[in-house]
Each structure stands twice: as C-alpha cells, then as structure tokens.
Design brief:
Number of helices of chain A: 10
Largest sheet of chain A: none
Oligomer: heterodimer
Shape of chain A: globular
Strand content of chain B: 15-25%
Order of helices and strands of chain B: EEEHEEHEHHHEHEHEEH
Largest interface: A-B, 28 and 34 residues
Order of helices and strands of chain A: HHHHHHHHHH
C-alpha cells in the first residue's frame, strides 16, 4: 500500500469561526478604507478648490453620513422613508434581472453546445454573435421594448429580454471554450469506449466546461443587473432602480444623496447576484481546490 | 486466434513524417508484450492504431479476430495512458464506473464490480475520494481499474508509469504483473524503460526510429511469478543488455524524451 496522500479537508470546523471573524474584520476594514478615501478626497478637494476632473463640493460628493441619512428620509412629506421605496424598486429590477439572467444563460449555454458540435457552424455563426455585442444596447433597448410591447408583452419582460441580451454573450463564449477544452487523451478514452457524440458531450464536455460556465455566470450575473437598469430607462418603466436613477438625476442639485443612495442599492443588488453564483458554484462544482477562482 | 494481429501497417503524418513502416506483429492471448524504442519511433502511434484511435495509412489490424474498428466498438480492450485521465468531478468509484455506465450495466452489478476492482488495485476504502486527493501512483491504479472494469481481454498501456518516481514505478510493475496473472488478459505495453520492459514482458518488441520499424523481438524467459528478486538475477541483466544492444543496433539515439508534435494526415 502506498503512502496515503490524502489531504485533510481545509474546511475543518475548528478553523471555521476564526476565519469567519477574520473575513468580517476584512470587510469592515475595506468599508472603512472606502469611507476614508471618499471623505479624505472630499476634504482635500474642497480645501484645495480642485476643479479637475470635477469640482468637489457638497453636491458632487456629499458626506457619506448624508447618503446614509437619506435612506431614512421620507421621499414625500409624511410618506414612507426612501429605503422603503428602494427596497421595492430593487425587488422589481431584481426580478427583471433574474429572469433575463436565466433566459440569457440558457440561450448562451445551448448556443455554445450547438456551436461546439461543428467547426463549420462555429465559423459561420460566431462572428454574428460577436457583432451582436458591438451594437449599443441603449440604441436597441427602446426598439425591443416598443417592438415587444406591440406584441402584447409586459414591459418588465421586455426589460428582462434586454438583460438576457447582455447575459448570453459571456456565457456562450466561455461555455464554448470549456466544451472544446477536454484533453485529447480524455477524448481518446471516450472513443475507446465507443462513446458517441452525445455521450461525449454530456459525460465529458459539459462537466469539463462547468468551471468556464461559472466564470461566465459571475460576469453575467452583474451584467444582467446593469442590463435591467439600462433597459428600464428607455422603456419609461416605473417602479425599478433604472427609473429611480433617471428621476433622482433631475433633482440631483437639490438632493444628491438620493441618487447616491440608489447607486449603492444598485451595487448591492449586483453583489447579491454575484454571491448567489459563488454559492451555487460551491454546491455544484466538484473540482480540485485550485480550480476555484 | 491471435489477440492482436498487425499486418503491413504503415502510418504517415501530414507533415510528411513516416511514423511507422511495414509493421508485422502477432500477439497471442495471455501474452505481455512491450513495445520499446526511442522517441519518435511511433510506438504510441502503433498502440493507438491497435485501439482504432488513429487509422493506419496502410495495412490491417485485427483484435481477437475482428477488424480494429469493430473490436473498439465491441469493447474488446481497455486503455491506460501516461496521465491517469481521471475525471475530476467523479469520485474514484465513479471513475471506475464510467465504462460500465456506457455499457448500461445495472447499478448493483456496477457496484459489485467496483468493489472487486478496488480490491484488485488495492484501493479499497478510497472509493469516495476525488482524484486530486490521490497520489500519482494511486491515480494510475484507478486508471488501470477503470480499464479492466468491464473485463476486456486486451489491455493497452501507453507509458502508464512514465511520470512516476522509480520506487512507485517498481511497485506498480509488480502489482501490474499480479493483476495480469489474476485476470489472464493480454497486455500491450509501451515504455521507454528497458528494465521495465524486461521485468514485465513475455516478449519485448524493439523498434527503430524514423521510420518506425520492428528491429527485433526478444523472448523474455524469466520464470513467473516475478518478484523484486527477479531484478537481481544474472539472466535479468543479460536480457536488459540484449535489449539495450538491439536498441543501439537499431540506431536509437537514447536519451531523447520529447515526442515530436505530429499532425495527423486525415484531419
């Protein structure tokens, strides 16, 4: 019997608690640093009368405390506080982004599967997929919303389609790369078992591609949120974060903190999407530890 | 009927390199035949032609009396590469199970066989480990277990221990001989190592390079079962010397390790 080279699991219970504490400390330190950089820049900029790249004043860079305060301020007199609205807008935009993400990821994945099967198809179709992403999304978003609207599609679904448009591309490109990545010997092994195209696809190519797929999903998760926000603007769709951004922009000189609060919520929504994929990856992917990004 | 019958096989690659020329070789059932030769002599290519993983430019190959392609489709052989080629996302047991799943074996039949194979390669207790948790030698044992799981009569091995350290290699050599005797299968074994070829084989095929030809056949009449003591017998050294001289006579520039990257003709 050979020397046993089994590594002890690195996720022991004994080390879990201090590690969680260390992570939390790191997060707090990171946020504190961000706060310090913002306030420090603000302080220097105002004292030094900086005008480049922009003038530093209360409007352009409100105090962090002001932004934090804005979450609790009512939007209309005697109405609920801003955070109440932001929560509902985030849910609305999150719904669009999630639908778009799922749709786009599915399209991207199956497109990649189709492309992986033939070099000729790949050569013929891939350029158009690349071109699809060079079209400015701002230009086609209204067309999608209006076009689908005339077919009786609910506006939020149209926005989801726009989010899907941004989502499918990274998934398609990365999945394709993953599907084509098995070692020649791994393919020879399958051939030695007389495995056909479909068995090779599902038992070798798809599992091999999963790390690539998850890398793409992480990019797409945040892109789908951006897509939903951008999609809402030309759709004049009320009730989401995109509309809130347009709205608060108009009152920026009076209440800059409202826009900043909205931006923070947009970022948080993106982070939630990203983390969801990270968790999913941990659950699904069974790979050597070094294969996790 | 021969286990492997190779007649007039030649292989030319796109780059114009003739990898193999006029190879004739018969392997009888139960034999352990090693192919040895310098880098670029086409021994790995010959192994792949036997397995119908690449087609010869000329000549025919039969495995158990069937044309190579038919034999591959009928799962007449198992193959082991230099890398273990285990699937990371599968456990040890599931890796061994892969060919059985492709052959539509029932779950209970599969589980029984996996247990037997783990015992055969002395890895009982590791069924739920993932490949990256195993040492190189253990990975290669799993690879052998997978190749033998569906009881093919022929085992093709392409420098299976080439990436292992000398001690592990010698231990696995002894284990492989045990497995070979237990299963009674025929083995065609590609190697760079002269002592390995002599220790394992009933017959050593010495090949010359560019173009690859059969330069000599050496019967290895060392008694079975062979043990580590076999490696110290005078006759073992005589045979090693004999193989070395034949390799030298075949014009083998010893010491090369890189196989040239060859592009296949048919691509």
């Amino acid at each position: 019997m050979s020397a046993i080279a089994v590594e002890p699991s690195k996720r022991g219970i004994a080390g879990a608690l201090p590690r969680a504490a260390a992570r939390a400390a790191l997060l707090v330190a990171g946020l504190a640093l961000l706060w310090g950089v913002w306030e420090g820049y603000r302080w220097l900029g105002i004292r030094g009368h900086w005008t480049w790249p922009f003038e530093v004043n209360d409007t352009n860079m409100p105090h962090i405390s002001k932004i934090w305060h804005a979450f609790g301020q009512p939007l209309q007199p005697d109405g609920p506080p801003l955070r109440h609205y932001l929560w509902h807008w985030a849910i609305f935009t999150g719904k669009e982004a999630l639908a778009g993400f799922v749709l786009g990821a599915a399209i991207g994945f199956f497109l990649a599967v189709a492309l992986s099967q033939s070099k000729v198809v790949r050569r013929g179709v891939l350029p158009y997929i690349v071109v699809s992403q060079t079209v400015p999304i701002l230009a086609i978003a209204p067309m999608v919303v209006v076009g689908l609207g005339t077919k009786g599609v609910t506006p939020w679904v149209s926005v989801a389609v726009i989010a899907a448009y941004l989502t499918f591309f990274p998934v398609a490109i990365n999945t394709l790369r993953g599907l084509l990545s098995p070692d020649p010997e791994a393919l020879e092994l399958m051939r030695s078992y007389a495995a056909g195209r479909w068995k090779i696809l599902w038992r070798l190519r798809v599992p091999t591609s999963l790390p690539y797929v998850f890398s793409a999903l992480k990019i797409s998760a945040t892109a789908s949120v951006i897509g939903a926000i951008i999609g809402e603007t030309p759709a004049s769709l009320q009730g989401g974060l995109g509309y809130a951004i347009v709205n608060f922009n108009q009152y920026y000189t009076i209440q800059p903190a409202n826009l900043w609060a909205t931006i923070i919520v947009c970022a948080l929504l993106g982070i939630v999407f990203f983390l969801a994929i990270v968790v999913l990856e941990r659950l699904v992917l069974k790979r050597a530890p070094e294969n996790f990004a | 009927m021969n286990a492997v019958s190779i007649k007039g096989v030649s292989k030319r690659f796109k780059a114009g390199v003739t990898a193999l020329q006029g190879i004739d070789l018969d392997v009888e059932p139960g034999e352990f035949v090693s192919l040895i030769g310098p880098s670029g002599c086409g021994k790995s290519t010959l192994l792949r032609i036997i397995g119908d993983l690449t087609k010869p430019t000329a000549g025919t190959v039969e495995v158990n009396g069937k044309p190579a392609e038919r034999a591959r489709r009928d799962h007449e052989y198992g193959i082991v590469f230099q890398d273990a080629v285990l699937y990371d996302w599968r456990t040890v047991a599931k890796n061994i199970s892969l060919p059985l799943e492709l052959l539509h074996w029932s779950r209970s039949k599969r589980n029984a066989r996996i247990r037997d194979m783990l015992e055969l390669v002395e890895l009982s207790g590791f069924e739920n480990h993932h490949p990256w948790q195993l040492s190189g030698g253990m990975q290669q044992r799993v690879s052998i277990a997978r190749a033998l799981s569906f009881s093919p009569s022929l085992l093709l091995m392409d420098e299976p221990f080439g990436a292992l350290d000398e001690m592990t290699r010698e231990r696995l050599n002894a284990e492989l001989l045990g497995i070979w005797q237990e299963t009674g299968s025929t083995v065609v074994f590609v190697t760079h190592s002269i002592p390995e070829a002599v220790f394992l084989s009933t017959r050593v095929v010495v090949m010359s390079a560019r173009p690859g030809r059969v330069a000599g056949l050496i019967e290895v009449d060392l008694p079975q079962p062979r043990t580590s003591a076999t490696r110290e017998e005078p006759h073992f050294f005589e045979l090693v010397t004999q193989v070395r001289e034949q390799l030298a006579a075949a014009g083998a520039p010893l010491g090369e390790t890189q196989e040239p990257a060859l592009v296949e003709d048919q691509a």
